[in-house]
């Protein structure tokens, strides 16, 4: 019985299950599961983060490298695995510390098939073999196992250890649904195993043995120098949280692989951020994550707040971030198909919000819970709060549930800003897709929302945006959603300047660790429970986007630095990527409701990495050179995977082994575009005298025309390219270069 035959070859073998050390060949449902046993505790471990100590290491997008560390009864063991080819893996273990005599601590490799097909151990070949659909898996080990036992299930193997200890021999066997290859830490403190799929047993054995002779897997660092390790962290968080959904038979990047909420769990808002983070490396995975997010679309029009194997909250939704993420994925990849696949569900969701959450018809929305479905908390004040994603925020404390309208009594600032941004992004999507009438419709909706936010949700007495009762009064408590009008473009310039004052106020939002989700002078701040005081990565990211939209680059860079420092405090030491953080100490796990490996934690290092190479909803592809040495990438771009290096003040954009662009301009290039026969960008800053930009895929004789605003810069020779003098350009100048297209490469 096949497991799933359409998995990409690059990740057919992977850490697909809830047991992160378990390697699964998804197309055939074959598994190799490490099982630990401590005689001192008489306890086994399947290395499950819900029950055991697990420190997640590096994890490629795919299966080139998978690393983790675990501990049981004082014995610490690290695992490493990596693909030799799409059908072959090499795994290894090494014990770095012993909590008991090694002969009493056992590591077992349990080989099984989800179908229950028999696994046999060939004593002569010293390999385990299993056949599924005329295809074979062979498992070879560097050292022969001390003992081979046969069991009906993994649980039966665990029971054998826990009830009988390691001296027991009655379960020895060579064929069963589970074959257990047993090793102890006295004789095999380190070891290796090869796993190979082939169409004959002999070939599978040959390839598994050959894998043992290959060196350990490794991957190069993604970010060095400025914001060291930022991209590496994003990769590892996405890599580890990308798992298999056994109910819907799909790959997706879960909010976390740790929570036990059934066989799958999808929060709409969180899943869109999984799409954003995965798009940094793999547009196909990003596309899949967006599809999973939008699989919660209902016949009523909304995207369900949460869908799990146990429940579906179809009566409510979450902040509409899908269009923003889809647009960013398009900006990064240039793939129109991302927009086409998501537009229908996203546009229906936008219209649903306006039909169902504006009970007075004034153009501003309140969160609520409709009379459909049977989800937990339906028809309650808490259920309505779920729509903001900030369930226990102090900004809800004054809100009253109105059973007649099934909404809270307040206009929610964050939701209204998200809805305005969503409409703006839908307008951009519709324009690309040739839906001109809808582009105009959504642009008008965004403009109306911005006007109402600017005039109705601005508390002039405090000089800040805030939630407001529908009958007039402003809510006392504030959160960083007060800065969200920057994201949607609602704030006037004067209002935006006032917001910067609040951002810098140590009594409210400023501090060593930012941004708290209750102001520091609010009684809720001291509670330090979830949205009452703690720092949330998704909120920091949205505020950062808003600062960049308004050109507050210094403040945006400071927030990116603070977010990176906050994240790295727990990541470097403990490899924790937390759901939220303490706003006083920066600690992640001081509060028991925090998940230690949550997908949107990756937004904190993402902000830092995008200070070098990023994609902006409004200004497109951006490249930043502040003179500090950095190497970042490869990351996905319209050119494919590229990396950026800054050395000796010169920024280089590199596609594979080929340098595409160099510049010593210190500032930011925005709206970077490489098209057939044309390059263009905008200079965000004033170049120094003698500053240059060189293109290395063309020569001076290939240049047809060049414009730097109203000037015509000459194309000068620059080694293998053409160099253009930027002297005298003003901030905001556009550089456009038309050239003969490079000849097509024929394979």
Coarse structural class? alpha+beta
E-strand count? 40
Provide the domain count.
3
Helical region count?
15
Unreliable runs:
none
| CATH architecture tag of the largest domain | Alpha/alpha barrel
Give the % helix.
25-40%
Compact summary:
The protein is an alpha+beta fold.
Helices and strands, with pairings:
Blueprint: E1 13-14, E2 23-25, E3 30-38, E4 43-45, E5 53-59, E6 66-72, E7 75-85, E8 88-97, E9 105-113, E10 119-122, E11 127-132, E12 135-141, E13 147-151, H1 154-164, E14 175-176, E15 178-184, E16 190-198, H2 201-212, E17 223-225, H3 230-241, E18 242-245, E19 250-253, E20 265-267, H4 268-279, H5 283-294, E21 306-308, H6 322-333, H7 336-356, H8 381-385, E22 401-402, E23 407-408, E24 410-411, H9 413-432, H10 436-456, E25 458-459, E26 464-465, E27 468-469, H11 485-488, H12 493-503, H13 537-549, H14 553-574, H15 603-609, E28 613-616, E29 620-625, E30 630-635, E31 642-647, E32 650-655, E33 658-663, E34 667-675, E35 678-684, E36 692-695, E37 703-708, E38 715-718, E39 721-725, E40 734-739
Antiparallel strand pairs: 1-2, 2-3, 3-4, 3-9, 5-6, 6-7, 7-8, 8-16, 9-15, 10-11, 10-14, 11-12, 12-16, 13-15, 17-30, 18-19, 20-21, 22-23, 24-27, 25-26, 28-29, 29-34, 30-31, 31-32, 32-33, 33-36, 34-35, 35-40, 36-39, 37-40, 38-39
Task: Please explain how this structure is put together.
The protein is an alpha+beta fold and 747 residues long. It has three domains: 9-212, Beta-galactosidase, Chain A, domain 5 (Distorted Sandwich); 224-609, Alpha/alpha barrel (Glycosyltransferase); 626-739. Helix content is 26%, strand content 27%. The mean pLDDT is 97.
């Amino acid at each position: 019985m096949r497991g799933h035959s359409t998995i990409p070859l690059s990740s057919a073998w992977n850490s697909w299950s809830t047991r992160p050390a378990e390697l699964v060949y998804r197309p055939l449902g074959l598994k190799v599961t490490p099982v630990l046993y401590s005689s001192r505790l008489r306890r086994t471990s399947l290395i499950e983060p819900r029950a055991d100590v697990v420190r997640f290491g590096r994890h490629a997008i795919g299966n080139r490298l998978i690393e983790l560390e675990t501990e049981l009864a004082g014995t610490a063991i690290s695992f490493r695995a990596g693909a030799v080819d799409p059908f072959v893996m090499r795994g290894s273990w090494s014990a770095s510390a012993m909590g008991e005599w090694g002969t009493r601590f056992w590591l077992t490799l349990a080989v099984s098939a989800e179908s229950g097909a028999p696994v046999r151990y060939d004593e002569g070949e010293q390999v385990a073999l299993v056949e599924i659909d005329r295809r074979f898996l062979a498992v070879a080990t560097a050292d022969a196992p001390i003992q081979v036992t046969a069991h009906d299930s993994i649980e039966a193997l665990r029971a054998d250890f826990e009830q009988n200890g390691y001296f027991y021999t009655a379960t020895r066997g060579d064929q069963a649904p589970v074959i257990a290859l047993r090793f102890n830490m006295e004789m095999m403190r380190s070891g290796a195993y090869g796993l190979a799929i082939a169409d004959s047993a002999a070939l599978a054995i040959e390839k598994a043995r050959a894998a043992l002779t290959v060196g350990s897997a490794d991957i190069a660092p993604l970010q060095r120098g400025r914001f060291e390790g930022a991209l590496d962290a994003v990769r590892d968080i996405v890599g580890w949280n990308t798992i298999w959904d056994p109910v819907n038979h799909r790959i997706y990047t879960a909010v976390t692989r740790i929570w036990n909420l059934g066989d799958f769990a999808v929060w709409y808002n969180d899943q869109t951020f999984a799409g954003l983070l995965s798009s940094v490396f793999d547009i196909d995975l990003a596309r899949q994550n967006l599809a999973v997010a939008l699989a919660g679309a209902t016949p009523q029009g909304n995207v369900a707040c949460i869908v799990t194997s146990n429940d579906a909250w179809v009566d409510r939704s979450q902040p509409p971030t899908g269009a923003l993420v889809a647009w960013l994925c398009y900006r990064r990849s240039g793939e129109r198909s991302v927009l086409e696949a998501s537009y229908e569900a996203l546009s229906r969701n936008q219209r649903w919000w306006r039909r169902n959450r504006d009970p007075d018809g004034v153009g501003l929305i309140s969160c609520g819970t409709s009379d459909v479905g049977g989800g937990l908390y339906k028809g309650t004040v808490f259920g309505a709060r779920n729509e903001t994603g900030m369930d226990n925020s102090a900004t809800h404390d004054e809100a009253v549930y109105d059973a007649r309208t099934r909404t809270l009594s307040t206009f929610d600032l964050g939701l209204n800003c998200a809805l305005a941004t969503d409409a703006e992004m839908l307008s951009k999507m519709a324009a690309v897709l040739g839906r001109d009438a809808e582009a105009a419709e959504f642009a008008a909706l965004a403009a109306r929302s911005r006007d109402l936010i600017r005039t109705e949700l601005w508390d002039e007495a405090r000089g800040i945006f805030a939630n407001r009762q529908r009958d007039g009064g402003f809510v006392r408590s504030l959160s960083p959603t007060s800065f969200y009008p920057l994201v949607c473009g609602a704030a006037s310039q004067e209002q935006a300047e006032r917001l910067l004052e609040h951002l810098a106020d140590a009594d409210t939002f400023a501090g060593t660790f930012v941004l708290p989700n209750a102001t520091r002078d609010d009684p809720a701040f001291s509670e330090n429970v979830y949205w009452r005081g703690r720092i949330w990565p998704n909120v920091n990211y949205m505020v950062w986007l808003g600062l960049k939209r308004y050109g507050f680059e210094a403040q945006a860079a400071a927030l990116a630095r603070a977010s990176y420092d906050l994240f790295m405090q727990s990541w470097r030491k403990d490899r924790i990527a937390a759901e939220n953080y303490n706003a006083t100490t920066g600690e992640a796990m001081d509060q028991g409701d925090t998940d230690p490996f949550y997908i949107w934690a990756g937004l904190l290092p993402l902000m830092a990495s995008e200070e070098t190479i990023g994609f902006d909803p409004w200004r497109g592809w951006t490249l930043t050179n502040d003179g500090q040495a950095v190497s970042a990438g490869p990351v996905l771009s319209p050119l494919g995977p590229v990396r950026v290096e800054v050395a000796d003040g010169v920024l280089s954009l590199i596609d594979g082994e080929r340098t595409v662009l160099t510049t010593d301009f210190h500032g930011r290039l925005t709206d970077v575009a490489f098209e057939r026969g044309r390059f263009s960008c905008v200079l965000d800053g004033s170049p120094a005298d003698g500053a240059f930009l060189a293109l290395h895929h063309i020569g001076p004789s290939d240049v047809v025309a060049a414009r730097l605003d109203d000037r015509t810069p000459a194309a000068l020779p620059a080694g293998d390219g053409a160099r253009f003098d930027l002297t005298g350009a003003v901030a905001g100048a556009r550089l456009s270069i038309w050239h003969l297209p490079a000849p097509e490469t024929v394979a």
